[in-house]
Amino acid sequence: MFVPSDVENYDDVRTELPPERLKLEWVYGYRGRECRANIYLLPTGEIVYFVASVVVLFNYEERTQRHYLGHTDCVKCLAIHPDKIRIATGQIAGVDKDGRALQPHVRIWDSVSLSTLQIIGLGTFERGVGSLAFSKADSGQHLSVIDDCNDHMLTVWDWQKKSKIAEIKTTNEVVLAVEFHPIDPNTIVTCGKSHIFFWTWSGTSLARKQGIFGKYEKPKFVQCLAFLSTGDILTGDSGGVLLVWTRSTAETPTGKGPRGGTSFQISRQVKAHEGSVFCLCEMRSGALLTGGGKDRRIILWDHELRADRDMEVPDQYGTIRAVSEGKGDEFLVGTSRNFILRGTFNDGFLVEVQGHTDELWGLASHPSRETFLTCAQDRLVCLWNSVDHSLQWSRSLEEHGHCADFHPSGAVVAIGTHSGKWYVLDAETTDLVGIHTDGNEQLSVMRFSVDGSLLAVGSHDNFIYLYTVSERGRKYSRYGKCTGHSSYITHLDWSPDKNFIMSNSGDYEILYWDVPNGCKLIRNRSECKDIDWATYTCVLGYHVFGVWPEGSDGTDINALIRSHNRKVIALADDFCKVHLFAYPCSRAKAPSHKYSAHSSHVTNVSFLYNDSHLISTGGKDTSIMQWRLVEKSSGGAIRGVGGARGGIGGGSFWRKVFIFSVQ
């Protein structure tokens, strides 16, 4: 790298924390695909659910969100206290950027104030919290938790005292649900793969009785359970069957039972769904809702378990994963394609929450509107409105989308895929304008020049393909190809006059290209040290090298972007964090503001055209986070994280990549 001419003395260069901050404003997405029983309506009128490491409280009438941000990794389950105010959420184990374990645990918090009341299980749980439930008969004094370890340990806690009371191995098979009996405080029920267990809890001991299916077909999975007003237990299974389990007549009414534990026997069987019964929901009226997997049906059952009404969830939304009671005669449905629906049997469904269903990398902000586009491995391309947080349109591609860029006119958007194909879509109608192909490997970056007359396409085949563009992005002609990188293209930027390109590659090269003179590689890189790049998304370069953490192996940063006002740099790292640095950032180990919300590698970041907001995308968590930029208060009440450190140097990556020359 070469120090720009306007830097008289590099030793005088300093990088401080920027006065700007990020505040999480909106979360797009819902984790329905791999979870169940994770949507509820609170007395505040908010739907509570989770995605990534954020628990969202969404008021669908006022179109507002609040966020509980206490978790350090992916939230897996939640339970509502009988008072409908306190909430318990459990997370999986994780690892921070230094390789230190982030321990799985349960957080109990107040849904009104969003304050954390208690943290339990640190150092106890192994892999993560699979399911959990508050007790009901004693007004929620206790909490039962299933650990996702091999033995699926069941623990019972006095959560207010942070005290573990009892612990026992359940089974090596998958455990899908745990519940306290609502009448008998001594009975806990768990179910999962090929089993249902009835636990008698007494002091520090737990005694197990296995449910015997006898003459009834044993299901592969007991998917869910609920309690009838009689005290009987209702289960739904993978065969589409509802089973009623009644306490054995030999049992005492207190439920303490014999030494071996409480016994329940099947008293009734009802065929309910084609395919699995994924969820059961007890209504305030005493009626029951069931949700089916394969048949995607919601069925209302009366007190005698007779089907009263039913309706089908349209195929486009996926299969049912969660059902919860809403306001009046409404109910809420979470689906495998990450939709949350609100509906009634009379009026059908409204979509309240939606998002991507597979790994998400492509992100582009509109050049003149407060909208942004995402594309993912689920083949969906989505245009989102950042003002009302709605999905303006979506369409499906034949390929996995990976990168995108709007034409400066905003009329069209170019989308690169995993196969070397790239599509041009009309940004208003979603009509296909054209399909082009460059090689047969993944395209990693699409970038229009400032005036929109050229398009650069960076590929994993190590080439940058250039096209001339006309008719407001509707016509493309091959112009040339940049040949010289020895690894796949990761990032690139244009100069304002479209004469030069700066590019980065997978082996940490920084190369510069002379576009008018045949897309030639510029051998004397010092010629480019004073170019004022129109955008800054390259992760390697003099103006941004300070963002790299000490000891990095070069893969820790997935994306960065400079704000349009050139004041800050936003960065997406591989450790679930979004960073905000001051620009330029040309001092080693520069300080940053760090923000948590994602539970997977953060794949991309983009400022809206007016710098009012930053958008970040998660990889495997499939989430989109919208952050509002705020200025530091005059009293300095918000304290930044980290501090400035001097010197260039650090790990092997520093020595390998960042070699300076002053000319």
Brief descriptors of the model:
Methylamine Dehydrogenase, Chain H, elongated, 663 residues, mainly beta, 1% helix, disordered C terminus, 4-stranded antiparallel beta sheet
General description of the model:
By secondary structure, the protein is an all-beta fold. It is 1% helix and 47% strand. Among the domains are: 70-210, 7 Propeller (Methylamine Dehydrogenase, Chain H), CATH 2.130.10.10; 357-631, YVTN repeat-like/Quinoprotein amine dehydrogenase (Methylamine Dehydrogenase, Chain H). The strands form 14 sheets. A four-stranded antiparallel sheet has the order 1-54-53-52, with no helix packed on it. The protein has a four-stranded antiparallel sheet with strand order 2-3-4-5, with no helix packed on it. A four-stranded antiparallel sheet has the order 6-7-10-11, with no helix packed on it. Strand 10 (106-110) and strand 11 form a beta hairpin. Mean pLDDT is 93; it is low at 252-259, 637-652 and 659-663.
